[in-house]
Structures are given as C-alpha cells and as structure tokens.
Amino acid sequence: MAVDREHVLRSAAALLARKSTSTMDEVAKAAGISRATLHRLFAGRDALVRALEGLGIEECEAALTAARLGEDTAPEAVRRLVRELEPAAGLLAFLYTENQLFEGEQLYEGWARIDAGIAALFRRGQQSGEFRIDLTPAWLTEALYGLMASAAWAVSEGRAAPKDFTHMVVELLLGGALRREES
C-alpha cells in the first residue's frame, strides 16, 4: 500500500500546530503509519520540518494569489489575505517558531517571495495614503505574521473562537496601520 505523503504532511502539520514538541512517534500515530514508514518518508525531524516549510510556502503562495492583492483598497486586500491564510494559520504558527528555518545567511526563496508580495501590499497602502508611512512595509509584514501566529495559538488553545480569527487579526493590524487624520 502506497503512503500518501500529502496526508502525512497535513497530519503532521495539524499535530505540530497544536503541540510543537510532538515526537516522531506521535507524528506517525497521527498520520496512521508506523514510525519506520515515517522515517522512510522523512529521515528525521529536520527533514519533516523542511517538508512542512515547503507545504507552508505553497499554502501562502496560493493564498496570496487567491487574495488578489492588487485589487480594491489596500485594507480590503489585507482582509482578503488574512481570510485566505486562515486555513494554514496553525501550520504557519508552528513554522514561525522553528528557528532552524531562519538559520544561515540564505533565506528560503519562497519566503522571500511571500514577504515581497505582502510588503508590496503595505507599500501600496502607504502610497495611496491608507496606511501610516512611519511603519515600514517590512515591519507591517512581520506584524501580520506575528498576529496570525498569536491568533492561531489562541484558537487552538480555546482562548478565542475560530470564527473570530480574521476579525481579531485584521482589526488589530489595521487599527495600528491605518493612517489617521492629524487632530
């Protein structure tokens, strides 16, 4: 019987999003396979995390495309982006804490493309006068990631309702990012 690698990755992502310290045995159990089968697919935890990183990049790139970041106002595009990223938020929260992904001088090209796309959205909002110009697009991008990870953890721990995810992230982010008229 062939093992569905995608199923194993999605099972691992779901488990690690809830319990980032899960062992390879726990990952195998969650995927419904033996530890030996898991090790045939992924030589160890590092290989599994790298594969999850690839899945996370795929999910983010698909969300960026679906969110149509160049359409409508920048705040509306941010709302769409958060809605599109929400299904992957648990995986992204796990990846956000995996320091090994960010070691070394070379940032994975996929993350760089994602960062550039999101930063371009914030830059567009600044150029149109919708977003504050004293916060860099890079910082607003990092703030978005941090808020999404925090919301994913809050939802997974039962401290926030899943239906409130997008509202919590968008309102807090835009509450700080929107340009206000000087009084």
Explain this structure to me?
The chain is an all-alpha fold. Helices cover 68% and strands 0% of the residues. It has 9 helices and no strands. The chain has helices spanning 5-18, 24-31, 35-41, 45-67, 74-85, 89-96, 109-127, 137-156, 165-177. Helix 4 packs antiparallel against helix 5 (74-85) and helix 6 crosses helix 8 (137-156). The longest helix has 23 residues, at 45-67. It is elongated and about 60 Å long.
Overall 3D shape: elongated
Tally of DSSP helical segments: 9
The description of the largest β-sheet is: none
- Strand tally is 0
**Which strand-content bin applies to the residues?**
under 5%
Which runs of at least 5 residues are low in confidence (pLDDT < 50)? Answer: none
Rg, alpha carbons: 18 Å
Q: For the residues shown, what is the average pLDDT? A: 89
Structural class: mainly alpha
Task: Tag the structure with descriptive keywords.
183 residues; mainly alpha; 9 helices; 68% helix; elongated
Question: What is this entry, summarized?
Answer:
The chain is mainly α and 183 residues long. It has helices spanning 5-18, 24-31, 35-41, 45-67, 74-85, 89-96, 109-127, 137-156, 165-177.
